[in-house]
Description:
Distance between the termini: 117 Å
Number of helices: 17
Amino acid sequence: MIVSKAIKNYRIRKIESIGKMTQMTQDEIISNTKTVLQGLEALRVEHASLVSGIGDTVKDDEKTYIIKKNIDHIDLGLSEAQVMMALSCHLQNVEAEKQKLKTQVRRLHQENAWLRDELANTQQKFQSSEQLVAQLEEEKKHLEFMTSIKKYDDNQEQEDVNEKPRPDPVVELFPDDDNDDRNNTSPTPPSQFSNQSSGYEIPARLRTLHNLVIQYASQGRYEVAVPLCKQALEDLEKTSGHDHPDVATMLNILALVYRDQNKYKEAANLLNDALSIRGKTLGENHPAVAATLNNLAVLYGKRGKYKDAEPLCKRALEIREKVLGKDHPDVAKQLNNLALLCQNQGKYDEVEKYYQRALEIYESKLGPDDPNVAKTKNNLASCYLKQGKYAEAEVLYKQVLTRAHEKEFGAIDSKNKPIWQVAEEREEHKYDNRENTPYGEYGGWHKAAKVDSPTVTTTLKNLGALYRRQGMFEAAETLEDCALRSKKEALDIAKQNKLQK
C-alpha cells in the first residue's frame, strides 16, 4: 500500500509537471527533466530494495508482481527522460548550426555587395579606357589637321563669302545629371548679327581661327585654343573696333574656354563684356542677348550660384518668348535650362511645370521623334525620381525606350518587344532556366541606341537604377548590360568611320 501510494503521488506530480511544461523555457525543461531523472533513479533503487526484501522475508507473489510492474514503468520513464535529454542536446546542436549558417549568409551578402561594387568600378574603368582611346584617336586627327592648316595663305580670303559661318558654339543647354551638352548652338549665327549692325563679314582666315578654337576647346587643348582665340579677338578689334557683334561672339567663345578651365572670374568678365556689346549693337531684346544671358546663367550654375543664375535664365526666356514666340524650340531649350536651375534649388513644382511645357513645345513643333523630346522626358523622369515618384518616372523612361525601339525595329507585338519588357520578363522568369534565355538571343536591341545614343543610354541606366531600387536586380542588370553594349558599339562605329576616312 505504501508503495502504491508513492507511485500514485509520483504520477500526480508528473501530470502536473507536464501541464506546466508548456509554460517553461527550454533550459527549465532540461533542468526539471534532470531532477525527474534523478528521482526515478532513486525510486527504482527503492523498488529494487523492496523486491529484494520481500524475496528474503515474505513470499507474496502479488506484491512482488506489482513492484516489478512499477519498476518497468520507472524504467520506461527513465528511457523517456534520457530521450528528452538526447533530443535537447540535438536541438542545441541544430540551433548552433543555424546561427552559424546565418552568419555565413550575412557574410555572403556582404561579399556579394562588395563584388557588385568592384564590378561597377571595373566597368567604369573599362569605359574610361575606351573613351581615352577615342580621345587619342581624335587628338591624332587634330594634329594631322594642324599640319594641313599650313597650306592656308592669303589666297584663302578669295573663297566664297556666301558660305554659311558656324553658329555661336557657346550657347548650350545647362548640363543635366548625366550629360554636358557642349555642342548645342545659338539660334542666331554670327552672320545674322552682322547683317543687323554694320554688315561686317568675318574674313576667311578669321573664320578658320574661329573654327579651330571651337575644335581645340572641345578636345581640352586649351594651350592651343586660348592663343588662337585671342589672336582672332585682336584681329577683329583692329578691323571692326571693340563694340562689334563679332567681337562679342569671340568673347563668348573665349569665356567658354576659360569656364572649362575653371577660370570663372575671367569667364564672367568676358560674358558681361559680350552682353554689353550685344545689348548696345543689337538691342536689349535680341536673341543673341538671350544667348549671352544664358551663358552667364550656365557659368553661375557651374559655380553653384543657382539663385544668381535663375533671374538671368528667366530674362533670357522672356526675350526668346517675345522675339521668337512662346512655342519656339529655343524657348523650350531655355525652359530646360531654367528647370535644371530650379531642380538644384529643390523647387520641384516649378521644375515639373517647365519640363512639361518644354515637352509640349518639342512634340508639337519638332515631332515625337526629335531627340529633344526623349531628352526632356528623361530630365522630367529624373526629377520625379528625386522626389520618390517612381511610378511617374518609370512611365516616362519606358516611353523613351519604346519610341526608340519602334524607330529601329517597327511596331511592338508579342515577338517584337522593347528592351524594358524583355528585362521585366527576365526578372519574372529568373528562377526558370528554360524561360530565362541568354540576353543575346533577344537580338541586337542595344543597337537601337544609335538613334539617339546619349539619351537612350542614359535612359537605360536610369531605368536600371529604378529597377534596382525596387529589388528587380535581373531586370536592372539586363538594362545596364544593354547600356554598356550600346556605348561600346558607338565607340566601335566611331573607330570604323575614322579608319574609313
